[in-house]
Specification:
228 residues; mainly alpha; 9 helices
Length: 228
Amino acid sequence: MREWLRAADLRLAAELAVIGALVVAFILIGNAVGSGFDGFDEQILLAMRNTPDDPRGPRWFENAMMHLSALGSGAVTGLVTIIAVGYLLMARKPRLAALLAACALGTVIWMNVLKRIYERARPTVVTQIDPPGGLSFPSGHSMISAALYLTLAVLVARTLPERRMQRFVVAIGATLAMLVGVTRMYLGVHYPSDVVGGWTVGVTWALACGVVARRLGTRGEVETTGAT
């Protein structure tokens, strides 16, 4: 029975099914955004404020949210990617390093393409804290952090022998991505649907890159980081 399951590669089928479901979910979110979803989004943003100009919580909390938001910025995620690629090169895994770099670059390309397609303006119902400019949907910080931190978490998890440690590392990656998205809403620079859309695309891209990496690793075309 186990050999038949391996031959059928049900894991690949499940991964492709999840990717397909996420793509459909993103399309539905995009359609909702284009059909006047702003009212619901604005209610959530206002719920995070005492007044449109004053976020809930003390000043130190506002500063903390700004710092956490930077975990999804181009500067931080770019630096993390460079460090990860450098580590893989030092570990003599050049093809895996190249694949990670390609996936990171692909995330940025997809982000810009999708923003141009939807051309949604930033929220105006609340005062933006540290406004970044540019287009709003999907959230680039949310998308990039989901793709990067989940991908790195899976790579690290594959080197760990215990399932509980693997789950812990993946949970940390997911938590970082979620925190970044929440901060973007709190700072008023993205609608909730921007963030959910960014998470959806980021997870989709991370899964797709993971499928490619595993398939290439099985064929010996890309080095592996371990077995799960």
